[in-house]
Amino acid sequence: MATIKDVAKMAGVSTTTVSHVINKTRHVADETTQAVIDAIKALNYSPSAVARSLKVNTTKSIGMVVTTSEAPYFAEIIHAVEEQCYRQGYSLFLCNTQNDPDKVKNHLEMLAKKRVDGVLVMCSEYLDDSRHALKDFSYMPMVVMDWGPVNPDTDLILDNSFEGGYLAGKHLVENGHKKIGYLSAELKKVTAKQRYQGFMKALSEANVTMNPDWLFEGSFEPEDGYECMNKLLAMENKPTAVFCCNDIMALGAISAIADKGLRVPDDISVIGYDNVHSSRFFAPPLTTIHQSKAHLGERALKLLFERISNKEAKRETIEIHPELVVRKSVKKIL
């Protein structure tokens, strides 16, 4: 394998000159530059990424710490970030935490050792241990992409879950529904709580009272949507519509409804949240609350690049506002 000394020898220059040509750290005469480039091509020389990063103080790499890359919502955001990294010539280190504070800390330590230029964090819930870990690594450029803590050491992007829950509840009551159930993730989770609070505000404005027996808590998984919906369907008094606090729970709920020989929306209406790519292919296509996942990923990465280039830049809060997407899973009651 060729070394920088081999390139310098073939080009008839010093290794320092070769380094300046590669890293563009000093002007080198055009003729000399071309000689170095020709030698690099002839020898198929590839500079050491580690050595180069030490000289130019960048690794051209980004870390991304997420709850899980398997969930469709996270997967779509990760795809957008990865695509933008590729276009900018950056590598992406992806770390899954499963909301384990120890994993959050260990992943951040690993990314720091790899000298990544910055870190994106999207961990759904931030326990005290996780908050401390973020603060411990606040010397790295960092963007918290979801409903994390208001940390003065990081930029922050807010998804406005309260607003999204409000839109979902308002759409159901505007379509004549007064008997509405709610399938939620654990309400101790910040995002689930905010969506529920927004939903309840919409019902309150319409003078609609939700039966507390129609509120079920699970997690953001299809199995929980399926199980919670079965419990709801087992009741003698059933709602005419259900709000699921994410699309994947809605998928499980629709499956449970079909298993009972019922139809959406003829027998019961369903509305979801997130507008994941597959929601338009549900049977029927799912009415849901859209969050621009591609925009979120792109904007967060752009903000991180700004933090990398100017570590003294002012901290920012960027808001993403949800939108209602009307499809065919909600029936209008006359």
As for the CATH topology of the largest domain, it is: Rossmann fold
Biggest sheet layout = 6 strands, parallel
* Element-by-element helix/strand order: HHHHEHEHEHEEHEHEHEHEEHEE
Number of strands: 12
Which architecture of the largest domain would the CATH scheme give at its second level?
A: 3-Layer(aba) Sandwich
Order of strands side by side in the largest beta sheet? 2-1-3-4-5-11
CATH superfamily of the largest domain: Response regulator
Class per helix and strand makeup: alpha/beta
Low-confidence stretches: none
- Average pLDDT figure: 87
Radius of gyration: 26 Å
Separate helix tally: 12
The amount of beta strand, in percent, is 5-15%
Percent range of helical residues: 40-55%
Note the overall shape: elongated
Instruction: Give the end-to-end Cα distance, rounded to a whole number of Å.
Output: 77 Å
Q: What's the domain count?
A: 3
The CATH class label of the largest domain is: Alpha Beta
Binding site for hypoxanthine: 73, 189, 191, 220, 274
DNA-binding region: 4-23, 48-56
Protein name: HTH-type transcriptional repressor PurR
Domain HTH lacI-type: 2-56
